[in-house]
Amino acid sequence: MTMSRQSMFPSILVAIILSVPLFVNAQKKDSTFIGSISGSVKDTAQNYFLQSATVSVYTEKDNKLFFFTLTNSLGEFHIGSLPLNLKLYLRVTYIGYDTYSKSIFLGFEKKSVDLGEIDLRRTSNTLENVTVTPPPVRMHGDTLEFSAAAFEMDKNAVAEDLLKKLPGVIVWGDGAITVNGKQISKLLVDGKPFLGGDAVVATQNLPKDAIDKVQVYQENINSLDPYDSTTAINLKLRKKYHSGYLGAISAGASSPEGKYDVEANNSIFTPKNQIAIVAQSNNVNKTANDINTLLRNNTFKGVNARIEYQPDFSLPGINQQSSGGVLFTHDFIPEFNQYKENRLSANSFFNHNFNNTINQTQTITAIGIDSTLAQNSFNTTRTDGNEVHFDSHYKKLKNQDSLMVEGFYDYKMNDIQKLLTNEVHSSALGLLSNANQTDTNRTTSNKIGFYGAYNHQGFYNSATRKLTNWSFNYSISYQTENFSRALRTEFLNIYDTTMNQYYDRKYNNHKDIVAQDLRMNVGNFATWLFGKSRVLSRLQIELSNELQWDNERQHNVIQDGDTLNKLYSVNEGLSKIGDFKALTETPDLRIGRSFINVLANRYQKEFSIWVDSKFQFNYQGNFSTRSFQNYIANYFRFVPNINLAYSDFQYGEYLNSFDLNLEKSAYYPTPDQRFPLVDSSAIYAIHEGNAFLTPQNKYEVAFNFHHRNLHSKNTLLYGFNITDGFIKNYFGDSTNVDFAGRYFNYTINLNGNRYLKMHIFLNKAFIHGQHQFQVNISSAVEKNRNPGYIGYQSTNQFGFNVSNIFINADSLSLFYTYKDFLALHFFQNIYYYRSRQNGFSNIELGSLQSLTRFGAALNITKRFSITSNVSFNWYSYSNGPANKFTIWNAFLSYRFLRASNLELKLSAMDILNQNKGIINSGSNYSFTHGTVNLLHQYFMATLSYFPRKFGNNKAAK
Amino acid sequence: MQDRFKKKLCFFFLFFVCISLGVAQTTFTIRVSPDNAHGGTASQIFDSIQFTPLETTKESLFGSIDQLEVTDSFFIILDKRGKSILLFYRNGKLHTRITTGGQDKYFNYFTVNRNNRQIIVSNNYANGLLLFDFDGKLLKKQPCPKDVQSLYYFNKNIFLYNLLRPFDQNNSLPISYDLAYSKGYDSVFKYLHPYNSKSEDGQYNIMYSPINFSGQEGTCMFSLPFSYTIFQLNDSGVSCKYQFIFPVEYSLPPNFESDSSYKGKRAKYVYQDQDNYKKVSGITSVYRIDDYLIFSAQRGLMSMDAGWNYLYNLRSGNLYSFTKITGDSTSFYFPLMSNLLEIPNATYKGKIYSSTPAFRLFSIKDNINKQVKYPKVLQDFFINGNKNNNPVIVEFNLKPKL
Q1: Helix/strand/coil (H, E, C) string of chain B?
Q2: Does A1 contact B285 at a Cβ distance shorter than 8 Å?
């Protein structure tokens, strides 16, 4: 019988242990470490040598683990570089056998001892071997198990510190964990994801003392595709630690006064249930929009040089955020793996955001040959947003079938107050107009939704003709939204005061949306249709269908105020009751074929081709009390997709993957593009309709390549991708600036759009003794050719224009860590944007930005650490002066108490007080640059307390 | 005194039984407790071990050994995925290679007519058996019964065919047979091993070798998945039966093969249900050398060292697991038939033949820190070859009276 399988993983794991010298306690390599012990381990009763038996050496005086290894394929072990003149003892353990121990003394006269064949006896205990000190490592079937107790560490050490000590396991500077170069797919605690599943939440919070065993194992082993298997780590907790409480409370106050930052986390876990309650409030631009961010960045151990949850000095405006939530999971069965799962989880989150932004910008629009319009704006916006979110998720997985059900509820309320003043200048005529606007609005929305998915994976048996796989998923959501707004606009035309405008408009809009989505996939029909035919039954034939059904009702009441009578009357032109329905039905016949070329144990090459014959039917029906908006549209499009993929897997060497995708897709015009109600109070963005709009068709080719090195424990990954395409009947923009300087635009179908995107990347990580290095390089280029129409009534010119946009972004990132002592980070990013006009205009607009960042974290002692980072920012835009500023932050932190769980942190932010809010952005034929207010220098002292409790005692704060 | 009399009585009785039955059909009951199998060192189990690397050139490169037959001059190897049958000389050099020549054309199984020096191959495209000579020349095509899965040639122009079980039960007869004896290629005169096709199905047609030369002249071994009974057959019928019994935790439920409640679910039970991974799903590669029985116990468990291959002494009842046999100087410290990649492939003139992939020899050699004097063929192999070389044939000579 042959199965070309390559499950070498247990042997690889053992090979790691044998090849790396495993001195558990740091020692000096001096001339006294020349002793050695050797021998072999045997079961004499059954006359065979035991492979992967654990052999460990302890110092007899204090019972400290000195060295451990596993026996090789011949049952032998050889331990060198042992200290002389020290009482040692040797222990040999193997599952199902009694432990063997022997005292050994190596001296100058007898430096090496050969114990010969060590006989292990089958244990008479029917229960698992319960020894006083478990072996540091052992192979338990296909699982490599490390015993935490064998590794002595500081009493405040956490799981991450233990993982760093395990041979073959590497915890990288950016948080990734690899085993023999392979990144782990998940980290579980007691067999289940821990408080949301983020490994950092577990490894940086759980004390090392809580852990019984670290288990490393393979999952999803596919006999034909060995590289498909994933590596997982499970932290098995000790008996009294199966339940516990983890907490974090911190509060910070600043100088100058007014800044604050408070956080609280409480997590409780038991074998079946996990609850996390988190909350924070700050006005220092730290943004936490989900529970995981708060859990991940408030761990006991704390972050090192990673710059994640930190005040964001580039956020515009003054911000205040309070957010928090509750996470709950309940496991109905103890198992959680690729075959079995039965879990209910619920999440709730609230978010309150307050923002006060003041910005000053100039927008340059290329409006003709050597002709531009410059719009100078001064804008103050206050936003007050509240959001409450709740969701609940249930998943049941049993062998081939899985069911997932999810429900959510979302409440949002946003209050915005805006004050805007604008001036428009033309390069030919100078100041044309100015405008003042106040805008107060509130949006309230309630949304409730449901999602269900069922998936059946048939058991592949080439002999049967039965349907093997089918899946379907369905989602529905219902949303109601209320929008109320009071807008006052005053517009003055310098040249012709008869063109002055004044609006005092109130909006009261209500919207109800029901959106549904149903997707199904069934296959493989080839064996049904073609029976035993050799060639045709090798095809894969699937049927897929997606149905989207949206229903939107609007009830808008707009009122205009009369300056004389101070009364508001309904604006019949803009008020309406409307009903919009859209249905998109996309059936898909998928035909594919794979070709595999395997040379057992050497390589596996696979080529596949898939052709999707997809048709799309789009129906839109719009009904409105403003009857010109009524329409019914039906569109029918053929939107095929072809995919070719090739992978070349060389066992133990590398994996190359290539993917080429050709796709045609369609985008349908909306009622708002075709028949909007034109609101002239928008002055600088008056949107008109185009009844003759037809759908745009996109044709795209995308190519992807990526290479992964499998050779060593140091990872190398690189690749590139290219996307090229064009859009026929592109929704181009037609903008006309009238005599008064008001901007009118509508959408028009144009040909001539083209785009190209290219991206290359390389990631390399390597370890050299205690030094870890990581390099990430990335470079992207984007070119867009966007046709449009622009016109300027004052010069009586109107014409076709093409904006050629070119973007280049390059970045380099380096990480270096040395033991647990030092972490360094360097980052350089350059961003270049340029837009060249061809046709009606000949103007060129652009910008160049550079960011250089350097960070360092130093753990001077176990309790005291210093972190600092510096960013050099450089911004320039065409024809303008460059803006440069340096932001320097520094932190000092010190841990108090025996348990090291009280921390005082001093932060100095933007020490040089140079922070500037620079706005630099462009699109097609306009470019905006300017400044915005934002966070500046401050100093803060934060006190944090991390209460932790494990076992059956009630949680104590 | 009494004992000796009892023994004599037994012998007389057996003698009479044998005479009256004409054909002596013995049944051996073999109790296998994997946990209690013995081990040893290579020197204790084998008299000698010989490695023969197979030449690796563009013409001779192949994937894996799906079937191996040994003759005085050749190793005859079937590589199904590679759509080839290769003949290597006993020294490892390539003699010739037979290919199907087509994308979807495969050789399934072959048997050897040593007298006429012919290879008879069942396949999926020629509507009959293909005959080749030992030089790789296609001699002719012969008709054969429908649905032949594997076959065996007895020297008196008698063929034994193992027939595919039907996939579509509705079209089959109520009683069908797994085995058919044929005089010449297509003249069936006897059927054996009936089964009820309504309660059993095509799930039995799992890719593995159900018939192989037994090691005893003129007989072959036959086994089916989900069954613990092995039949040793000669040119007229069953000459011996081997009934395997495993401990409860390693056994399939009773009547697993015939119980209709398992119909259509057997493969899933054994290969996909996690809870059943330890249970033995079938017995293959059974060879009889004197009093020894060598066999592989298949399991759903995807573990390298699940302990597949065993040696059983029919006389003494001693059981050895090849996983527990440690390499030593006799085997140049290589472990033997100890995992999934190395199973007993064939037997010839009292020796067992297995194979090992090249990468395994290289990776084990790097981890052995002993002074090993490799034979010249292996030295050349390690110097001139690499892990992408063809597999290496290993020939084992068992010690007697284990």
Answers
A1: CHHHHHHHHHHHHHHHHHHHHCCCCEEEEEECCHHHCEEEEHHHHEEEEEEEECCCCCCCCCCCCCEEEECCCEEEEEECCCCEEEEEECCCCEEEEEECCCCCCCEEEEEEECCCCEEEEEECCCCCEEEEECCCCEEEEECCCCCEEEEEEECCCEEEEEECCCCCHHHCCCEEEEEEEEECCCCEEEEEEEEECCCCCHHHCCCCCCEEECCCCCCEEECCECCCEEEEECCCCEEEEEEEECCHHHCCCCCCCCCHHHCCCHHHHHHCCHHHCCCEEEEEEEEEECCEEEEEEEECCCCCCCCCEEEEECCCCCEEEEEEEECCHHHCCCCCCCCCCCCEEEEECCEEEEEECHHHHHHHHHHCCCCCCCCHHHHHHHHHCCCCCCCEEEEEEECCCC
A2: yes
Q: Rounded CA gap, A347 and B286, in Å?
A: 58
Tens-place pLDDT, residues A68-103: 888 887 888 988 888 888 889 899 998 888 889 999
Tokens in use for A305? Answer: 């040089």
Which ipTM value was assigned to this complex?
Answer: 0.80
Distance CA B103, CA A543 (A): 27
Give residues 173 to 212 of B whose Cβ lies within 8 Å of A: 202-203, 205, 207-209
Contacts of B335 in chain A (CB under 8 A): 73
pLDDT given for residue A9 in this prediction:
40
Residue of B nearest to A7 (CA): B304
Instruction: Determine how β-strand A797-818 pairs with β-strand A822-839.
Output: antiparallel
A917/A908 Cα distance (integer angstroms): 19
pLDDT in the model for residue A863: 87
Residue A28 pLDDT > 50, yes or no? Answer: no
Cα distance between residue A452 and residue A584, in whole Å: 20
Please name the member of B103, B304, B326 whose beta carbon is closest to the beta carbon of A74.
B326
What tokens were used for A136? 């540091």
Q: Is the peptide bond before A524 cis (omega within 30 degrees of 0)?
A: yes
Å between B164 CA and nearest CA of chain A: 11
State how far the Cα of A661 lies from the Cα of A251, in Å rounded to an integer.
52
Can you give the pLDDT at residue A132? 57
**Which of B168, B326, B342, B362 should one mutate to test binding to chain A, selecting the residue with the greatest count of A CBs within 10 A?**
B326
For A582, list phi and psi in degrees, rounded to 5: -140, 135
Q: Write out the E strands in A562-599.
A: 568-570, 576-599
Q: Could you tell me which residues are beta bridge partners of residue A580?
A: A552, A622
Q: How far is Cα A783 from Cα A766, in angstroms, rounded to an integer?
A: 35
Taking CA atoms, B70 is separated from A509, B119, B135, B159, B235, in Å, by 87, 12, 15, 19, 21
Closest CA to A190 of A331, A6, A299, A63: A331
Using CA atoms, how far apart are residues B389 and B383, in angstroms rounded to an integer?
A: 12
Instruction: Specify the 3-state DSSP secondary structure of A59.
Output: strand
Q: How many CB atoms within 10 Å of residue B383?
A: 7
- What one-letter code names the amino acid at B277? Y
- Cα dist from A422 to A366, A371, A415, A489, A505, whole Å: 18, 20, 23, 11, 19
Q: Name residue A81's amino acid.
A: S
Span B178-185, mean pLDDT?
A: 91
**CATH number for the A376-893 domain, one of 2.40.170, 2.60.40, 2.30.30, 3.40.50?**
2.40.170
Cα B325 to Cα A49, B173, B318: the distances in Å are: 8, 48, 14
CATH number at A9-239: 2.60.40.10
Q: Which two tokens stand for residue A180?
A: 């023999």
Q: Is A59 exposed, middle or buried (0-12, 13-18, 19+ CB in 10 A)?
A: middle
Residue ranges per structural domain of chain A = 9-239, 376-893
